[in-house]
Structures are given as C-alpha cells and as structure tokens.
C-alpha cells in the first residue's frame, strides 16, 4: 500500500526520483502516469492501472457515450514510463504544466496509487479538505 508524504528534489529538465518507500511498493521499473482529476499527476503500477480502468473499459463501446468519453480521457492522457535504477524519470511536460509543477514537489501515497503535486497546490488542497 502506498502511504506517506515525501518532498524529493525536482532536478533539471523535470527529472524526479521516486522515494525508496514508493519504489519498494511498486516492485517494478514501470509505472503508468496520468493526470489526476485535481491538479496533480497519478502514478500506478501496470497491474493496478488495469484493475482501476477495467470497469470503465467494460462499459459498452457503441451505446455508452459517457463511457467512450471517459475511456478516451483515461487512456489518451496516460503514459507508461520506465524508471531508471535509482527510480528516476522525467515528468512529461504536458503533465507537469497541468499540475503546475515548478520547483517544489510533494509525492503522496494514496493507497493504491501515488500522486505528484506542486507543493503549493498540495498545501492549498490540503487546507480545503481539512
């Protein structure tokens, strides 16, 4: 289970290293990233991504417009990335822009996935939900 909050350094070019505790839970070098519903980036293992998206992919393709729209949003904005041996990767620029990520980031565990936030946006959001 992905738990905790971490404040890693964002390196030049949008390069980020996932914290060791997150990497240990992922148990593999590949991660699916997609934009969140709030201004953040979601990260999933491939298996969890398949599990999370299965209900939407099971909706009827031809007769369910809302299902088609959600399927397009989920899949067109997702990307499979490969972590290097230190758990580093480059945040895709469109995702970084969507989440407003600049210098300070926070990675939070959210149970079945992790989220990457601009530290400022996370603090604002956290204040709203408190």
UniProtKB/TrEMBL annotation:
SUPFAM superfamilies: AbrB/MazE/MraZ-like (SSF89447). It is found in: Cytoplasm, Nucleoid. The keyword Transcription applies. Coiled coil: none annotated. Forms oligomers. Keywords: Cytoplasm, DNA-binding, Repeat, Transcription, Transcription regulation. Its main location: cytoplasm. Belongs to the MraZ family. GO terms for biological process: negative regulation of DNA-templated transcription initiation. The keyword Repeat applies. It comes from Candidatus Gottesmanbacteria bacterium RIFCSPHIGHO2_02_FULL_39_14. GO terms for cellular component: cytoplasm; nucleoid. GO terms for molecular function: DNA-binding transcription factor activity; transcription cis-regulatory region binding. This is Transcriptional regulator MraZ. It holds the Pfam family MraZ. It comes from the Bacteria.
């Amino acid at each position: 289970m992905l738990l905790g909050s971490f404040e890693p350094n964002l390196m030049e070019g949008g390069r980020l290293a996932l914290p060791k505790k997150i990497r240990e839970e992922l148990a593999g070098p590949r991660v699916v990233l997609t934009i969140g519903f709030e201004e953040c980036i979601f990260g999933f293992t491939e298996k969890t991504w398949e599990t999370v998206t299965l209900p939407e992919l099971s909706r009827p393709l031809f007769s369910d417009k809302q299902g088609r729209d959600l399927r397009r949003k989920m899949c067109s904005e997702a990307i499979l990335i490969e972590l290097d041996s230190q758990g580093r990767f480059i945040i895709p620029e469109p995702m970084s822009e969507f989440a407003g990520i600049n210098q300070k980031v926070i990675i939070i565990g959210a149970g079945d996935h992790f989220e990457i936030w601009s530290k400022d946006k996370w603090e604002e959001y956290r204040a709203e939900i408190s």
